[in-house]
Amino acid sequence: MLSAMTMPARRRTFLAITALVASGPSSSDAFAVPSAVVHTAIGAFSGALGALSAYPFDMVKSQLQTDYGRAKYGTSGIAAATDIFQTSGPVGFYRGSLVNVVGIIPEKSIKLGMNDFFRMCFIDQSGCLPLAGEVLAGGLSGLCQVVATNPLEVVKVGIQTSDRSTKPSIIGVLKNVDGVTGLYKGAGACAARDVLFSALLFPTFAHAKVAVPIFLASMFGGVAPSQFWCGLLAGSLAAAPAAFLATPADTIKTRQQQARDPASEVQDMNALEMARHIIETEGAEVLFSGSFERVVRSIPQFGVTLSFFDVLSTKAIEMGIM
Predict the structure, then answer these.
(1) How much is the mean pLDDT over the chain?
(2) Domain 10-15+34-318 belongs to what topology?
(3) Is pLDDT larger for residue 261 or for residue 233?
(4) Residues 272-280: contacts with CB within 8 Å, 24+ apart?
(5) What is the distance between the alpha carbons of residues 83 and 315, in angstroms, rounded to a whole number?
(6) Where are the domains of the chain?
(7) Which of 38, 129, 182, 297 has the most CB within a 10 Å radius?
(8) Contact 161, 63 (CB under 8 A)
(9) Interhelix angle 271-281/247-257, nearest 10 degrees
(10) What is the pLDDT of residues 184-224, one digit of tens each?
(11) What pLDDT shows up at residue 88?
(12) What residues contact residue 20 under an 8 Å CB cut-off, 6+ apart?
């Protein structure tokens, strides 16, 4: 068994939460904030910071993934960004960001919390987590988050891809959504994207955050940068390949959720039918539309999110509130 000093921060976090739930509050800590609440707040805060830091890239990415945007901008993110700036000014890059930041709070809380939970579930009798367990834990956490992610994506993409002259609002987009089922339009593609992304992201980050300090210490005379900077680099390195490989599912999801309605027979396609339609009519390379912008967005977003999550979780444990 690992000692308390050598035990990974995330495992100590989970054990602290488990112990609190099992024992229940005592009279001496009746007014203390439950550790689970602290854990959730840390995940929400970290996710919101990460999402806000990278939102302009997400805005450009969504333009390039729609059929309308591809016809207008081709594959040029610079052309899309220039058009957004000329028609809406700098604020145009943050169109729909409010719903994204608010919606990211439950999404990232679920993603980060469930990944920790499933990682603990797959630890073997020797106290080690096999690579297959890491991948499965990440994939399951991505699947769990879809319940919160898909409604967020429907509203966000609806705002991002509508006619910029109409100044769409959250209420306006929701009025055009076909009830609760409409909020889960494109859920299959969204689930495929999030499962693949998380299955790649979390195992890579877990190993990178161990390797990065060692590598940087060898580069800087035996002294590595702080936990935050090491985590930022590790999270960025983990996010890049995961974001690129998950782009086809993200493109299909965006096509299904876009506000500028294509022909009805296209609008009603499921994820597999949409993929086949895109390949047959536009070419397979279109599935990777916006991949550069998606990677560039994910690098700061998940670098910031994962680094802050690790640092704040460690501080909370040191302060005895988790």
Answers:
(1) 83
(2) Mitochondrial carrier fold (1.50.40)
(3) 233
(4) 274/189, 275/248, 278/251, 278/252
(5) 43
(6) 10-15+34-318
(7) 297
(8) yes
(9) 100
(10) 999 999 999 999 999 999 999 999 999 999 999 988 888 87
(11) 85
(12) 34, 35, 36
What the block records as the tokens of 73 is 């901008």
Helix/strand number for the chain, H first, E second: 14, 0
Residue among 233, 278, 231 at smallest CA distance from 256: 278
Chain position carrying tokens 């999402």: 51
Query: Which tokens belong to 31?
Result: 């007014």
Length of the chain equals: 322
3-state secondary structure of 76: coil
CA nearest neighbour of 47 among 93, 102, 117: 102
pLDDT tens track for 21-64: 444 444 444 445 666 778 788 888 888 888 888 888 888 988 88
Contact (CB, 8 A) for 12 and 39 = no
User: Which amino acid is present at 183?
Assistant: L
Q: Give the whole-angstrom CA distance, residue 255 versus residue 267.
A: 8
Q: Which two tokens stand for residue 206?
A: 């877990």
